[in-house]
Design goal:
The complex is a heterotrimer. By secondary structure, chain A is of the alpha+beta class. Chain A has helices at residues 23-30, 86-94, 103-116, 122-129, 140-152, and strands spanning 2-8, 11-17, 49-52, 55-58, 71-73. By secondary structure, chain C is α+β, with helices and mostly antiparallel strands. Classes of the chains: A alpha+beta, B alpha+beta, C alpha+beta.
């Protein structure tokens, strides 16, 4: 067991975790932040994407202890109160989601993209977002949504 | 052509999804997010053998592990088999296992980790038995029989006219044998100028929903069993569960959750009944979430199929008859589909004029993962065969594949291949619109190939859809629905339809999905039905609500209801006096007559209006590697009124890309009966980098069978895509693939064979 | 997930001391993308997991004629690094092909080489760049050439008490051209059916002075195609030379049949992609500086 001290969506968190606790278990079960979703379990689908110190990570493959001293952003931390992030507005306006289960991961990955590259080309969007699978949309509207959010910035 | 006159405020508008804000902020609740006090976790031990007798199971060590609340094997649960029609699957394996991955024991424990540790302590001894994996082999007299005892068949859909259906005929391992005849195909083929015969194979693929099957069951002290489950038709699921566990429906409450993708694969109870018995044994609520590994190896993926088509033509290259034999591999249990077989036969060659047709469909047990429904069940397999076969015939006759299709296209007044009369045949128009946008006749760069595939499918009309509308004192309407939105936008569509009926804006309607105790029966999503069936239910309820409003207006305006006129803005007038909806309802509330409700349901008669789609693909093939690069596609749809252009286009794009997976990269691979494509590193779903340039053409001015001339889109967009690509590959390099998926290796091997090279 | 004790040393010496003490019962974790997956599938069950996060400030890239890359440099940082793109674009290219952005953000170069998954993209690039891997233990330090570092399926020459600390790339010769090809006939996020890292140096007359060819996903280890290299040395850099040399790769590889292809197909693809990678490398070498 180990005590981890970190911020989650800007809020300080201090918890005891088992050494082998996964970050996704810590977020969903210990902190009850269920916006992050579990799916493939092997880091391929991206549904579990969160940002750790601004970098997109597979929370299903990250140890909770690795977040010690860091800043984690989950989907719950993307909007500021009632003010949606431009990406969230864009996904809403352009239909960048359908069933919604991959959407938290898509938005967080896209957020990291726009922070690294505020005006990505379509090819750059596709290259960055390649690890976030979606079965509903066919991806066209995800690309549109991210491009729109980048354009709106 | 009919067009609907719309207010311009609701139907036809790109309204934001009613579930949208919750989904983009991560607040949507899926079954896996449900948390109740005392919740514990269930996991299953699964068979490593495709066919075996269970000699013994020792659970003593597992039971003794701290944190374990219950351990169940087949002897601990009732001797009940259940299923959506054929009730052949036990709650836990009883005495025998019939596929690798079949559930043999289950544990409920304080954590998933403890449950899995307990599974490792369960000792099972098996005696392996002969197994059969291939459907044709399973029908041979020497094949091991999977279900020697009689299988109970629940009430359910039986084949329609023109059909002979035998359930469990005296052929080994056959679940259903269906023969449909229209005219005399044998005679037509005997007298035909030319006859072509080709055979095709389509493997199983997984629905690929990102949310695995998940359920939570809580048995209340008050006797109510609360269920939260990723299931697209909670009322149907409740009915099946009630029968299986012997609890009346009014004590089973299926609570609303959103579903993380369904595509036909979440219509069965999966682990829900087992979860109930764990909850009973543990005296605690239990959550069971399948892992991705379990989904890929032991879910209910698409049926694989072998299809042989024989088509006869006259001297003018017109089709005189088709004889089809379709064999579906159902896996070890028939329980996962609601019909005797897959309905995909019903659209076989539906885009063509076929005066004589015989279709034989066999659905067969094998010792492999039980198969289920996936996005127009049976149709993708059949469409791949038909559209490849048609293309091959065209090439053999040295006719342009597009021209051959036009020549044989079904037109208004023709009967379908199965002898049904349908209206609104825009097959040629759809082909032409797509071909024009695609530039079918424009010059091609060397090495580039082009292919087309076409498909016809009417909106589904089966089952029951109900809706309850309640108008409050401010003139706002709440829509109470009985089924979830699995992503297609059903809830948003319902809101737009209601808003349209009453001239309201979207902010004045609210959608609520109720639990099964508070809602009337709703069959839920399936067979691209909801646009029609829920549309009809909403129109029915809206009509009744307008009658009630008219009666109120008559009272308020002091006239007879027949004197009241309803304006397009939703206001009421009589003899020059006018009152708007809000004022009328406010007045009614002051008289204690509001809020009030109206119920509606669908009519469930299959409409005769149908819809067409044409897909065009352009590929280039790397001759040294065989790799097929999909350059661009055009998809042309014959549509009615589009309720929401963003949702509609989303179905077109999503359906197409899902089909690309079946075409290019997905396959459930079996070895000795076990699924070995067991994680997403090996089972390859299309990514954002795998999509082609895509142009969509919507034919304007269409007719739809549903209110406001709307029509289905969810399955249309998906079914026939793969053949457009394989037809393009043939055009590019002369390689004809008779099975899916396309792979560089298969193409290269064919190229080398043609060149006489190893 | 298997239980283990997590230790987080705050210095390299402390990390090496822990390795010395726990040896074969310990695994190092940097980005964790490889190890956590193996542990979740119960393919490895270490009693101790030694986290290297606190050593991050040592992560860096130093230019010294060649490059000295800290083992803890992330693949994403290498992909984006101006120094790497300038001095070893082959490595930057290979890093850009790895998996997903999430893996690239966390996975480290040292972790990648220690992990030794034969399908990975960075090892063939390192072999083609004549990289040397610096391994340290409490006993001392040694350098191992990349083409001798990998010994088997997830196996390397590393002793249980050793840790990769640096990857050294020599200065690249003038007239250098490189190419990295990852053959993905199914989806873009797949493992390679075959991958090829090629480096060609042309002399003043435009002939091939020197060449390196390495492949991934072609055997139980990343392989160096020495026979191809030998057949190129001193030859004119034309299509005939490449076409004649490429099939010599077959002696170096032993592909495993899997979902990405049969062994026969992978062999054919190795030949095709060796030729194509060399052609790209030659074209790049010919571009004015």
């Amino acid at each position: 067991m180990r005590t981890v001290t970190l911020t989650v969506n800007g809020t300080p968190v201090v918890r005891e975790v088992a050494d082998n606790r996964l970050l996704i278990e810590f977020l969903r079960e210990d902190l009850k932040l269920t916006g992050t979703k579990e799916s493939c379990g092997v880091g391929v689908c991206g549904a579990c994407t969160v940002l750790l110190d601004g970098k997109p990570v597979s929370s299903c493959l990250a140890l909770a202890v690795h977040a010690d001293g860091g800043a984690v952003t989950t989907i719950e931390g993307v909007a500021e109160g009632d003010r949606l992030h431009p990406l969230q507005e864009a996904f809403l306006a352009h239909g960048g989601f359908q069933c919604g289960i991959c959407t938290p991961g898509q938005i967080l990955a896209a957020k990291a993209l726009l922070e690294a590259n505020p005006h990505p080309t379509k090819a750059e969007i596709q290259h960055w977002m390649m690890g976030n699978l979606c079965r509903c949309t066919g991806y066209y509207k995800i690309i549109e949504s991210i491009a729109a959010a980048a354009g709106a910035a | 052509m009919a067009t609907a006159s719309l207010t311009g405020k609701a139907v036809g508008q790109p309204a934001q999804r009613v579930d949208g804000v919750a989904k983009v902020t991560g607040r949507t609740r899926y079954a896996g997010d449900v948390d109740v006090p005392g919740l514990i976790f269930g996991r299953c031990l699964r068979s490593p053998h495709p066919s075996a007798r269970i000699v013994s199971i020792d659970v003593r060590q597992a039971k003794a592990l701290p944190g374990v609340h219950a351990v169940l094997t087949g002897t601990d649960v009732p001797d009940v088999c259940y299923g959506r029609l054929c009730r052949d699957i036990p709650i836990l394996a009883k005495g025998v296992v019939r596929f690798v991955g079949e559930k043999v024991a289950a544990v409920a424990a304080d954590s998933v980790e403890i449950a899995e540790a307990a599974l490792e302590l369960i000792d099972v001894t098996y005696e392996e038995l002969p197994a059969v994996f291939d459907a044709e082999e399973a029908m041979r007299p020497t094949a091991p029989v999977l279900h020697p005892e009689k299988v109970e068949i629940g009430p359910g859909a039986v084949a329609g006219h023109h059909a002979e259906l035998r359930m469990y005929p005296p052929i080994p391992n056959v679940i259903s044998h269906l023969t449909l005849r229209h005219g005399d195909a044998a005679g037509a083929l005997a007298g035909a100028h030319r006859v072509f015969e080709h055979s095709f194979t389509v493997p199983s693929v997984h629905q690929g929903y990102i949310e695995p099957h998940t359920c939570v069951v809580s048995v209340g002290a008050d006797g109510i069993v609360d269920v939260w489950v990723a299931n697209k038709g909670p009322h149907i699921a409740r009915a099946h569960m009630a029968v299986a566990i012997g609890v009346p429906e009014d004590r089973l409450r299926f609570n609303p959750v959103y579903i993380g993708g369904d595509f036909g694969g979440k219509g069965s109870l999966m682990d829900t009944i087992l979860c109930y018995y764990l909850a009973l044994a543990a005296r605690r609520p239990v959550k069971m979430a399948m892992t991705s590994f379990e989904e890929l190896t032991a879910g209910n993926p698409r049926h694989s199929a072998s299809i042989t088509l024989r088509t006869g033509l006259d001297r003018d290259a017109k089709i005189v008859g088709i004889d089809a034999r379709i064999v579906f591999n159902a896996g070890a249990y028939a329980a996962f589909i609601p019909g005797p077989t897959l309905h995909g036969y019903s659209e076989l060659a539906g885009t063509y004029r076929v005066p004589n047709c015989t279709i034989e469909v066999l659905r067969v047990y094998t010792n492999t993962v039980p198969r289920g429904h996936m996005r127009s069940p049976g149709a993708p397999q059949v469409a791949f065969a038909v559209e490849s076969h048609i293309d091959m015939i065209a090439h053999e006759l040295r006719l342009d594949p597009l021209e051959f299709r036009r020549r044989n296209a079904i037109v208004e007044g023709d009967l379908t291949p199965l002898g049904d009369r349908r209206r609104h045949m825009r097959c040629r128009e759809t082909i032409d619109a797509g071909a024009s946008a695609f530039g079918w006749d424009k010059p091609k760069a060397p090495g580039v190939g082009r292919g087309v595939s076409i498909y016809e499918h009417p909106s589904g009309a089966f089952g029951r859809s109900t809706v309850l509308l309640t108008m409050d004192k401010d003139g706002r309407i709440t829509i109470l629905l009985g089924a979830p939105d699995q992503g297609t936008g059903f809830h948003t569509m319902a809101a737009q339809l209601v808003a349209e009926h009453f001239g309201l804006s979207m902010s004045e309607v609210e959608v609520v999905q109720g639990d099964t105790l508070s809602t009337d029966f709703e069959s839920g999503a399936g067979g691209q039905r909801l646009t029609l069936t829920a549309g009809q239910a909403i129109a029915d309820a809206a009509g009744k609500m307008k009658e009630a409003l008219t009666a109120l207006a008559a009272e308020r305006l002091n006239c007879a209801p027949s004197d009241v006129r309803v304006g397009p803005d939703g206001s009421f007038s009589a003899f020059g006096t006018n009152i708007d909806l809000k004022s009328l309802v406010g007045w009614a509330a002051s008289r204690g007559k509001a809020p009030f409700s109206a119920e509606g349901q669908n009519t469930a008669t299959q409409p005769d209006v149908t819809g067409f789609v044409a897909h065009f693909a352009e590929v280039e093939v790397d001759r040294e590697t065989g790799q097929v690069r999909l350059r661009r596609m055009v998809t042309a749809h014959d549509v009615g009124t589009v309720i929401n252009p963003i949702l509609h286009q989303g179905q077109i794009e999503g359906g197409l890309v899902q089909a690309l997976g079946q075409a290019m990269s997905e396959q459930i691979v079996l070895k000795e009966g076990a699924v070995i494509t067991a994680h997403l590193g090996d089972y390859k779903l299309p990514t954002i980098m795998d999509i082609p340039e895509l142009e969509t053409v919507l034919l304007p001015g269409g007719v739809g069978p549903a209110p406001f001339e709307t029509a289905a889109i969810g399955e249309m967009s998906n079914v026939a895509v793969p053949a457009a690509i394989t037809n393009a590959v043939f055009d590019a390099v002369g390689v004809r693939l008779l099975e899916l998926p396309i792979s560089g290796e298969k193409v290269l091997d064919c190229l080398n064979e043609k060149a006489g090279v190893a | 997930m298997t239980p283990f004790t997590y230790l987080e040393p705050s210095s390299l010496d402390e990390a090496l001391a822990l390795l010395a003490r726990h040896g074969g019962d310990a695994k190092l974790i940097a980005g964790g993308t490889g190890l956590v997956n193996l542990m979740k599938q119960r393919l490895v069950r270490p009693g101790f997991v030694i986290g290297l996060r606190a050593l991050q400030p040592l992560a860096g890239i130093a230019e010294n004629g060649g490059l000295a890359i800290s083992a803890l440099a992330t693949l994403q940082s290498l992909e984006a690094s101006a120094a790497v793109r300038r001095s070893a674009p082959l490595l930057a290219a290979a890093c850009g092909h790895v998996a997903t952005v999430r893996v690239r953000a966390m996975a480290t170069l040292g972790g990648a080489v220690a992990h030794a998954d034969p399908f990975m993209d960075t090892p063939p690039a390192l072999i083609a760049l004549d990289a040397r891997i610096v391994a340290r233990s409490a006993r001392g330090q040694r350098q191992i050439p990349a083409d001798r570092f990998f010994t088997g399926f997830y196996e390397t020459v590393l002793q249980p008490d050793e840790m990769v600390t640096e990857i050294l790339l020599p200065a690249q010769p003038p007239g250098n051209g490189t190419a990295f090809l990852k053959f993905l006939p199914a989806t873009h996020d797949d493992y390679a059916t075959v991958s090829v890292a090629a480096r060609v140096a042309l002399d003043a007359s435009g002939a091939i002075a020197d060449a390196r060819v390495a492949l991934g996903a072609a055997a139980m280890v990343p392989v160096r195609a020495a026979a191809v290299e030998a057949a190129l040395a001193g030859r004119t850099a034309d299509e005939t030379t490449l076409r004649d040399a490429a099939p010599l790769v077959l002696g170096a590889i032993d592909p495993i049949a899997d979902f990405r292809g049969s062994a026969a197909y992978k062999r054919k693809m190795a030949v095709v992609h060796v030729r194509r990678a060399l052609a790209h490398a030659v074209a790049q070498a010919r571009r004015p500086a």
